[in-house]
Amino acid sequence: MIQKMKALFTNTYESDFVTTETAKPTPKKGEVLIKIHASGVNPIDNKIRLGLSPYASPVLPAILGTDLAGVIEAIGEGVTNFKVGDEVYGLAGGVLGVQGTLAEYTAVDADLLAIKPKNLSMKEAAAIPLVLLTAWEGLIDRAKVQKGDKVLVHAGAGGVGHMVVQLAKIFGADVYATVSEQKSAIVKGFGATPIDKNTPVEDYVNQYTDGKGFDLIYDTLGGQSLDDSFKAIRHYGQIASCYAFGTHTLATSSLRSASIHGVFVLRAMIGNENEGRKHHGDILKQTTRLIEEGKLKPLIDPRKFTLDNAIEAHKAVSDGSAIGKIVVDIV
Protein backbone atom coordinates (compact mmCIF):
# COMPACT_ATOMS: atom_id res chain seq x y z
CA MET A 1 0.00 0.00 0.00
CA ILE A 2 1.33 3.46 -0.95
CA GLN A 3 1.77 5.67 2.11
CA LYS A 4 0.35 9.18 1.83
CA MET A 5 1.29 12.61 3.13
CA LYS A 6 -0.23 16.08 3.15
CA ALA A 7 1.45 18.69 0.97
CA LEU A 8 0.73 22.12 -0.48
CA PHE A 9 0.77 22.17 -4.26
CA THR A 10 1.17 25.20 -6.50
CA ASN A 11 -0.85 24.36 -9.61
CA THR A 12 -0.65 27.72 -11.41
CA TYR A 13 1.48 30.80 -10.82
CA GLU A 14 0.03 33.54 -8.59
CA SER A 15 -2.62 31.17 -7.21
CA ASP A 16 -3.19 30.01 -3.64
CA PHE A 17 -1.74 26.72 -2.47
CA VAL A 18 -3.89 23.61 -2.83
CA THR A 19 -3.80 21.14 0.06
CA THR A 20 -3.30 17.72 -1.50
CA GLU A 21 -2.82 14.15 -0.33
CA THR A 22 0.07 12.70 -2.29
CA ALA A 23 2.48 9.77 -2.15
CA LYS A 24 5.04 9.86 0.64
CA PRO A 25 8.48 9.81 -1.03
CA THR A 26 11.02 7.00 -0.70
CA PRO A 27 14.69 7.98 -0.34
CA LYS A 28 16.87 7.08 -3.33
CA LYS A 29 20.59 6.41 -3.25
CA GLY A 30 22.33 9.21 -1.34
CA GLU A 31 19.05 10.55 0.12
CA VAL A 32 17.32 10.54 3.49
CA LEU A 33 13.59 10.72 4.23
CA ILE A 34 12.76 13.63 6.56
CA LYS A 35 9.62 14.22 8.59
CA ILE A 36 9.47 18.00 8.25
CA HIS A 37 8.77 19.97 11.42
CA ALA A 38 9.24 23.50 10.04
CA SER A 39 9.72 25.19 6.67
CA GLY A 40 11.52 28.53 6.36
CA VAL A 41 10.07 31.07 3.92
CA ASN A 42 12.23 33.45 1.91
CA PRO A 43 11.44 36.19 -0.64
CA ILE A 44 12.67 33.86 -3.40
CA ASP A 45 9.96 31.34 -2.40
CA ASN A 46 7.25 33.90 -3.05
CA LYS A 47 8.88 35.01 -6.31
CA ILE A 48 8.87 31.40 -7.48
CA ARG A 49 5.17 31.11 -6.55
CA LEU A 50 4.42 34.23 -8.56
CA GLY A 51 6.38 33.01 -11.57
CA LEU A 52 8.97 35.78 -11.22
CA SER A 53 12.06 33.55 -10.98
CA PRO A 54 12.18 31.62 -14.26
CA TYR A 55 15.76 30.47 -13.55
CA ALA A 56 14.56 28.59 -10.44
CA SER A 57 10.90 27.79 -11.04
CA PRO A 58 9.78 24.15 -11.06
CA VAL A 59 7.44 22.64 -13.62
CA LEU A 60 3.94 23.00 -12.17
CA PRO A 61 2.17 21.51 -10.34
CA ALA A 62 4.88 21.47 -7.68
CA ILE A 63 5.52 21.61 -3.95
CA LEU A 64 7.41 24.80 -3.07
CA GLY A 65 9.54 25.64 -0.01
CA THR A 66 13.33 25.84 0.26
CA ASP A 67 14.39 25.59 3.94
CA LEU A 68 13.58 22.83 6.41
CA ALA A 69 14.22 21.40 9.84
CA GLY A 70 13.04 17.92 10.76
CA VAL A 71 13.82 14.36 11.79
CA ILE A 72 15.28 11.59 9.62
CA GLU A 73 12.88 8.66 9.32
CA ALA A 74 14.66 6.52 6.72
CA ILE A 75 18.10 6.27 5.13
CA GLY A 76 18.78 5.66 1.45
CA GLU A 77 21.55 3.49 0.05
CA GLY A 78 25.05 4.84 0.53
CA VAL A 79 24.28 7.36 3.29
CA THR A 80 26.67 6.84 6.20
CA ASN A 81 26.87 10.24 7.92
CA PHE A 82 23.29 10.28 9.28
CA LYS A 83 21.05 7.83 11.12
CA VAL A 84 17.33 7.43 11.74
CA GLY A 85 16.25 9.86 14.48
CA ASP A 86 18.81 12.56 13.68
CA GLU A 87 17.45 16.12 13.85
CA VAL A 88 18.68 17.97 10.76
CA TYR A 89 18.30 21.22 8.84
CA GLY A 90 19.17 22.42 5.35
CA LEU A 91 18.37 24.26 2.14
CA ALA A 92 16.68 21.30 0.61
CA GLY A 93 14.28 21.88 -2.30
CA GLY A 94 11.55 23.87 -3.97
CA VAL A 95 13.35 24.54 -7.27
CA LEU A 96 13.13 22.91 -10.69
CA GLY A 97 12.56 19.17 -10.17
CA VAL A 98 13.38 19.07 -6.46
CA GLN A 99 10.40 18.68 -4.09
CA GLY A 100 9.93 21.59 -1.70
CA THR A 101 9.38 21.68 2.04
CA LEU A 102 5.72 22.73 2.36
CA ALA A 103 4.83 19.10 3.03
CA GLU A 104 4.88 16.55 5.84
CA TYR A 105 7.79 14.59 4.33
CA THR A 106 10.54 14.95 1.75
CA ALA A 107 13.44 12.88 0.44
CA VAL A 108 16.60 15.00 0.42
CA ASP A 109 20.15 14.66 -0.88
CA ALA A 110 22.05 14.01 2.36
CA ASP A 111 24.90 16.28 1.24
CA LEU A 112 22.61 19.30 1.67
CA LEU A 113 22.01 18.64 5.38
CA ALA A 114 23.65 19.06 8.76
CA ILE A 115 22.74 18.14 12.32
CA LYS A 116 20.46 20.80 13.81
CA PRO A 117 21.96 22.97 16.58
CA LYS A 118 20.93 21.49 19.92
CA ASN A 119 20.12 24.89 21.40
CA LEU A 120 17.59 25.84 18.69
CA SER A 121 13.99 24.80 18.22
CA MET A 122 12.92 23.30 14.91
CA LYS A 123 11.30 26.61 13.99
CA GLU A 124 14.50 28.54 14.70
CA ALA A 125 16.63 26.04 12.78
CA ALA A 126 14.36 26.18 9.72
CA ALA A 127 14.94 29.95 9.56
CA ILE A 128 18.66 29.61 8.96
CA PRO A 129 19.80 27.69 5.87
CA LEU A 130 19.09 29.88 2.82
CA VAL A 131 19.96 33.20 4.45
CA LEU A 132 23.05 31.84 6.21
CA LEU A 133 24.38 30.11 3.10
CA THR A 134 23.75 33.23 1.01
CA ALA A 135 25.60 35.33 3.56
CA TRP A 136 28.49 32.87 3.84
CA GLU A 137 28.99 32.42 0.11
CA GLY A 138 29.21 36.17 -0.50
CA LEU A 139 31.09 37.29 2.59
CA ILE A 140 33.48 34.40 3.20
CA ASP A 141 33.77 32.26 0.07
CA ARG A 142 33.81 35.09 -2.46
CA ALA A 143 34.77 38.41 -0.83
CA LYS A 144 37.00 36.70 1.77
CA VAL A 145 36.34 38.99 4.73
CA GLN A 146 39.38 39.67 6.90
CA LYS A 147 39.87 40.70 10.51
CA GLY A 148 39.80 44.49 10.75
CA ASP A 149 37.90 45.04 7.49
CA LYS A 150 35.36 47.83 7.47
CA VAL A 151 32.25 46.04 6.24
CA LEU A 152 29.01 47.70 5.13
CA VAL A 153 25.84 45.59 4.95
CA HIS A 154 22.82 46.96 3.11
CA ALA A 155 19.58 46.06 4.95
CA GLY A 156 21.44 44.67 7.93
CA ALA A 157 18.26 43.72 9.79
CA GLY A 158 16.90 41.66 6.89
CA GLY A 159 17.02 37.89 6.44
CA VAL A 160 20.39 37.68 4.70
CA GLY A 161 21.61 40.96 6.19
CA HIS A 162 21.40 39.92 9.85
CA MET A 163 23.44 36.81 9.04
CA VAL A 164 26.07 38.83 7.17
CA VAL A 165 26.38 41.21 10.12
CA GLN A 166 26.91 38.36 12.59
CA LEU A 167 29.37 36.45 10.40
CA ALA A 168 31.39 39.60 9.74
CA LYS A 169 31.60 40.23 13.49
CA ILE A 170 32.69 36.62 14.09
CA PHE A 171 35.51 37.11 11.57
CA GLY A 172 36.68 40.25 13.39
CA ALA A 173 35.36 42.93 11.04
CA ASP A 174 34.22 46.43 11.95
CA VAL A 175 30.59 46.27 10.78
CA TYR A 176 28.15 48.96 9.63
CA ALA A 177 24.61 48.38 8.39
CA THR A 178 22.01 50.47 6.60
CA VAL A 179 18.58 50.06 8.17
CA SER A 180 15.29 51.86 8.71
CA GLU A 181 15.22 53.87 11.92
CA GLN A 182 12.82 51.45 13.66
CA LYS A 183 15.19 48.51 13.06
CA SER A 184 18.42 50.18 14.14
CA ALA A 185 18.31 48.50 17.55
CA ILE A 186 18.38 45.09 15.85
CA VAL A 187 21.72 45.62 14.11
CA LYS A 188 23.11 47.39 17.17
CA GLY A 189 22.22 44.28 19.16
CA PHE A 190 24.30 42.22 16.73
CA GLY A 191 27.28 44.52 17.25
CA ALA A 192 27.04 46.69 14.13
CA THR A 193 26.85 50.46 13.76
CA PRO A 194 23.45 51.38 12.27
CA ILE A 195 23.28 53.87 9.39
CA ASP A 196 19.88 55.35 8.54
CA LYS A 197 19.07 54.07 5.06
CA ASN A 198 18.11 57.58 3.96
CA THR A 199 21.56 59.00 4.72
CA PRO A 200 23.39 60.15 1.54
CA VAL A 201 26.22 57.79 0.53
CA GLU A 202 28.85 60.52 0.61
CA ASP A 203 27.89 61.45 4.17
CA TYR A 204 28.33 58.01 5.69
CA VAL A 205 31.45 57.26 3.65
CA ASN A 206 33.00 60.46 5.00
CA GLN A 207 31.80 59.85 8.55
CA TYR A 208 32.92 56.24 8.93
CA THR A 209 35.81 55.80 6.46
CA ASP A 210 37.30 59.32 6.19
CA GLY A 211 36.10 59.36 2.60
CA LYS A 212 38.15 56.31 1.58
CA GLY A 213 35.26 53.85 1.27
CA PHE A 214 34.52 50.49 2.88
CA ASP A 215 36.78 47.48 2.43
CA LEU A 216 33.84 45.15 1.76
CA ILE A 217 30.17 45.78 1.01
CA TYR A 218 27.39 43.18 1.01
CA ASP A 219 24.32 44.32 -0.92
CA THR A 220 21.11 42.38 -0.21
CA LEU A 221 18.69 44.68 -2.05
CA GLY A 222 19.97 45.28 -5.58
CA GLY A 223 18.84 48.31 -7.58
CA GLN A 224 19.84 51.63 -6.02
CA SER A 225 21.50 49.82 -3.12
CA LEU A 226 23.97 48.16 -5.49
CA ASP A 227 24.60 51.45 -7.29
CA ASP A 228 25.28 53.04 -3.88
CA SER A 229 27.75 50.25 -3.16
CA PHE A 230 29.78 51.21 -6.23
CA LYS A 231 30.14 54.70 -4.75
CA ALA A 232 30.90 53.54 -1.21
CA ILE A 233 33.60 50.94 -1.93
CA ARG A 234 37.27 51.76 -1.48
CA HIS A 235 39.87 51.25 -4.20
CA TYR A 236 40.45 47.48 -4.70
CA GLY A 237 37.53 46.71 -2.38
CA GLN A 238 35.13 43.75 -2.56
CA ILE A 239 31.38 43.96 -3.28
CA ALA A 240 29.09 40.94 -2.91
CA SER A 241 25.43 41.04 -3.97
CA CYS A 242 22.69 38.43 -3.76
CA TYR A 243 20.35 40.65 -5.77
CA ALA A 244 22.36 41.73 -8.81
CA PHE A 245 19.61 41.02 -11.33
CA GLY A 246 19.09 44.53 -12.70
CA THR A 247 20.92 46.70 -15.23
CA HIS A 248 23.81 48.68 -13.79
CA THR A 249 26.60 50.91 -15.03
CA LEU A 250 29.86 49.59 -13.60
CA ALA A 251 31.97 52.67 -14.37
CA THR A 252 32.10 53.93 -10.77
CA SER A 253 33.27 50.62 -9.34
CA SER A 254 35.57 49.93 -12.30
CA LEU A 255 37.41 53.21 -11.75
CA ARG A 256 38.04 52.01 -8.20
CA SER A 257 39.21 48.58 -9.40
CA ALA A 258 36.59 46.98 -7.17
CA SER A 259 35.73 43.29 -7.43
CA ILE A 260 32.02 42.39 -7.73
CA HIS A 261 30.71 38.96 -6.71
CA GLY A 262 27.25 37.71 -7.63
CA VAL A 263 25.71 35.22 -5.20
CA PHE A 264 23.01 32.74 -6.29
CA VAL A 265 22.65 30.23 -3.48
CA LEU A 266 20.17 27.96 -5.30
CA ARG A 267 22.81 27.13 -7.92
CA ALA A 268 23.94 23.93 -6.18
CA MET A 269 20.43 22.46 -6.23
CA ILE A 270 19.55 23.62 -9.72
CA GLY A 271 22.79 22.43 -11.25
CA ASN A 272 22.76 19.14 -9.32
CA GLU A 273 26.35 19.94 -8.44
CA ASN A 274 27.57 17.34 -5.97
CA GLU A 275 30.52 19.46 -4.90
CA GLY A 276 28.32 22.53 -4.33
CA ARG A 277 25.77 20.52 -2.36
CA LYS A 278 28.43 19.04 -0.10
CA HIS A 279 29.84 22.53 0.45
CA HIS A 280 26.41 23.67 1.67
CA GLY A 281 26.28 20.79 4.13
CA ASP A 282 29.81 21.58 5.32
CA ILE A 283 28.94 25.26 5.87
CA LEU A 284 25.89 24.27 7.92
CA LYS A 285 28.04 21.95 10.05
CA GLN A 286 30.26 24.93 10.87
CA THR A 287 27.15 27.02 11.48
CA THR A 288 25.84 24.47 14.00
CA ARG A 289 29.07 24.84 15.96
CA LEU A 290 28.88 28.67 15.90
CA ILE A 291 25.26 28.60 17.06
CA GLU A 292 25.94 26.12 19.86
CA GLU A 293 28.83 28.34 20.98
CA GLY A 294 26.41 31.28 21.21
CA LYS A 295 28.09 33.31 18.45
CA LEU A 296 25.24 33.28 15.94
CA LYS A 297 21.45 33.34 16.22
CA PRO A 298 18.46 33.71 13.91
CA LEU A 299 15.96 36.53 14.12
CA ILE A 300 12.46 35.02 13.99
CA ASP A 301 9.21 36.78 13.12
CA PRO A 302 6.84 36.03 16.04
CA ARG A 303 3.77 35.21 13.94
CA LYS A 304 2.39 31.68 13.77
CA PHE A 305 1.96 30.08 10.35
CA THR A 306 0.99 26.51 9.48
CA LEU A 307 0.20 24.60 6.30
CA ASP A 308 -3.36 25.93 6.64
CA ASN A 309 -2.32 29.58 6.23
CA ALA A 310 1.06 29.22 4.50
CA ILE A 311 -0.10 31.54 1.71
CA GLU A 312 -0.12 34.34 4.31
CA ALA A 313 3.48 33.48 5.20
CA HIS A 314 4.42 33.85 1.54
CA LYS A 315 2.78 37.27 1.36
CA ALA A 316 4.45 38.34 4.63
CA VAL A 317 7.96 37.92 3.23
CA SER A 318 7.21 40.46 0.51
CA ASP A 319 4.92 43.06 2.11
CA GLY A 320 7.54 44.57 4.42
CA SER A 321 5.81 43.40 7.61
CA ALA A 322 8.37 40.76 8.63
CA ILE A 323 10.71 41.34 11.55
CA GLY A 324 13.18 38.52 10.98
CA LYS A 325 12.59 35.23 9.19
CA ILE A 326 9.12 33.86 8.50
CA VAL A 327 8.69 30.16 9.30
CA VAL A 328 5.81 27.76 8.66
CA ASP A 329 5.25 25.15 11.38
CA ILE A 330 4.49 21.77 9.77
CA VAL A 331 4.21 19.73 13.00
Could you list some keywords that capture this structure?
331 residues, alpha/beta, seven-stranded mixed sheet, 30% helix
Brief description of this entry?
Helix content is 30%, strand content 26%. By secondary structure, it is of the alpha/beta class. The strands form 3 sheets. Strands 3, 4, 5, 6, 7, 14 and 15 form a 7-stranded mixed beta sheet that branches. A 6-stranded parallel beta sheet has the order 10-9-8-11-12-13, sandwiched between helices.
Describe this structure in words.
The strands form three sheets. Strands 3, 4, 5, 6, 7, 14 and 15 form a seven-stranded mixed sheet that branches. The chain has a six-stranded parallel sheet with strand order 10-9-8-11-12-13, sandwiched between helices. It has a two-stranded antiparallel sheet with strand order 1-2. A hairpin with an 8-residue loop joins strand 1 and strand 2. The mean pLDDT is 95. It is α/β, with parallel strands linked by helices. Helices cover 30% and strands 26% of the residues.
Topology:
Layout: E1 4-9, E2 18-23, E3 31-41, H1 43-50, E4 67-75, E5 87-91, E6 105-109, E7 113-115, H2 122-126, H3 129-142, E8 150-154, H4 159-170, E9 174-179, H5 184-189, E10 193-196, H6 201-209, E11 214-219, H7 224-232, E12 233-241, H8 251-255, E13 259-262, H9 267-270, H10 274-292, E14 305-306, H11 310-316, E15 326-329
Parallel strand pairs: 8-9, 8-11, 9-10, 11-12, 12-13, 14-15
Antiparallel strand pairs: 1-2, 3-4, 3-6, 3-15, 4-5, 5-7
Helix pairs in contact: 3-4, 3-10
Mean pLDDT, to the nearest integer, reads: 95
What does the main sheet amount to?
Answer: 7 strands, mixed
The N- and C-terminal alpha carbons lie at a distance of 24 Å
Fraction of residues in helices? Answer: 25-40%
Number of strands: 15
Any idea what the shape is?
globular
Label the structural class: alpha/beta
Radius of gyration: 20 Å
Number of helices: 11
Beta-strand content estimate: 25-35%
Poorly predicted spans: none
H/E series, N to C?
EEEHEEEEHHEHEHEHEHEHEHHEHE
